[in-house]
Amino acid sequence: MDITDAFEPGHRGRQWGARQAQLDERLSRHSPTGSPTHSRSSTPGSDHSPDRRPRPVRLVDLQAGGWSFAARDTRGGVWVWGEGNGRFMGAQTWENEYYEVSEASRIPLPCRAEAIAQGRNHLLVLDRDNLVWELLAWGKAYHHTAPALTAPSQTGASAPGRGPHVVQVAAGWTHSAALTSGGEVNVWFPFTREYDDVCTPESELHGPLGVDEDDLSRALRWGTVGDVVVTLPPIPARPQWTEEYSLQHWDDWEARRTDKELAASQRVVKIACGHEFLLALKGSGEVWLIPTTHERIASATWQYLPFFSSPSINHITVQYRTIVSYSTPSDASATSAVLVAGVETLDPASTSTLRPFDLPALDGKVVIQVVAGDWHYAALTAQGELFTWGANTEGQLGLGAAAQAGHGVPVQETPTQVQFPKDGERDPFVFAITAAGMHTGALLLGGKKRAAEPEPIVAGAGWPSSAQAEGVDPGVAGRGRFDHMFRIGLAGARGMRGGGFLGRGFGGGGPLAPGGPG
């Protein structure tokens, strides 16, 4: 389903850009630093200025949660739609974690987002001052004050000549994590009493920060959260394995590196969070796993995954209990390798022997991104092609499904290319993908400018109604109007009101899945 029209002007979500003076006053009064951080013409995520028409919304990142999607635009705005934590009919406001946002809406955060990470039912935002924000509901945000997440400085951490302290945030099912520039991995557990006890009390939250005082249904209140961070122990040296794996060429690789390069390669460069575990990638291509349950985090130890490690590996992905490590083309190699498996147990004896399954259909493809849902997978190539495989019970593969949800092709074992409608004479080009639960999303390069509109406008938030979506098979990749800068294609999931792409639905696993969520 194509939801590009949801970001055109004139819809409800477009109201967030009005009343600049009022917004600046609130930012000055309640900014995390205690002082104004944005001028009237550069309000966080703002889409209006006093003398100009609304500017286009250009999305650069799309993330999927258990029942929702989140997106980041070029101006640091964060958009969400769906539910934060499943369906509950009694939720009346979006400060409730179960509240359904049935239209793409921008969260009026008092900051500009540099990166986002979405867990099963929570959202992390890393802002341009290098502060980490956390949302357990769309209408409330807390920024972390723990020294491990704010040292060596808070505001201005990305100033010229000063590198950011936190370089990546990641969110799993029940935990969150942050990676520092020095390679330290910090985790915490936002759904615990310990976390609640150090959050700003309800009566002391800043805000509400909205734009229209007559309608605060999409307003935000915010505060801080104290030090609940656990810094994980350093990853040990790689153990020696007697069984050689075809992708491991450690001796040759190490022989071509200086001592300084070898030392630097031991730093963690990427992290990914799953269901009660965290995956870490070293600069050397080693992939390590550590259990992350709240009760046992203090005694958790790192486990090496030899069959997912190689000097060529430079990316990792985790969703639920699916792990993916893969290499993208580089100066040293023009090929890609994609290694996928399901983690059934966190026992060290099992993880050390865990092997990926074969994906011959991706051989020869220049894969640059791989994502996974609970039961399905997607891979993006450098040519802008999207391939999906795995369970298709809710049409989440974008390959088409029966009209009645839940009765499509149950499992597609071979990675198959998703066909998007052409945009005039231009072939579709996917540049980012995401997946979670039983749904998938993709960002595509957009279409031609309208001749009558020299300054194209793509900014709005009305969710397509069921009437607009009439005749669109929810299992087919996005179709509809493709004007302006980008297209958003969504597939799968069971029944958000008026949209049909809320999230997870229910269904059994296929042979490519490790087993469904409990």
From TrEMBL:
InterPro entries: Ran_GTPase-activating, RCC1/BLIP-II, Reg_chr_condens. RCC repeats lie at residues 76-129, 384-446. SUPFAM superfamilies: RCC1/BLIP-II. Residues 1-56 are annotated as: Disordered. Pfam families: RCC1_2. Gene3D superfamilies: Regulator of chromosome condensation 1/beta-lactamase-inhibitor protein II. GO terms for molecular function: guanyl-nucleotide exchange factor activity. One of its GO terms (cellular component) is cytoplasm. It comes from the Eukaryota. Residues 30-46 have a biased composition (Polar residues). This is Regulator of chromosome condensation 1/beta-lactamase-inhibitor protein II. It comes from Vanrija humicola (Yeast).
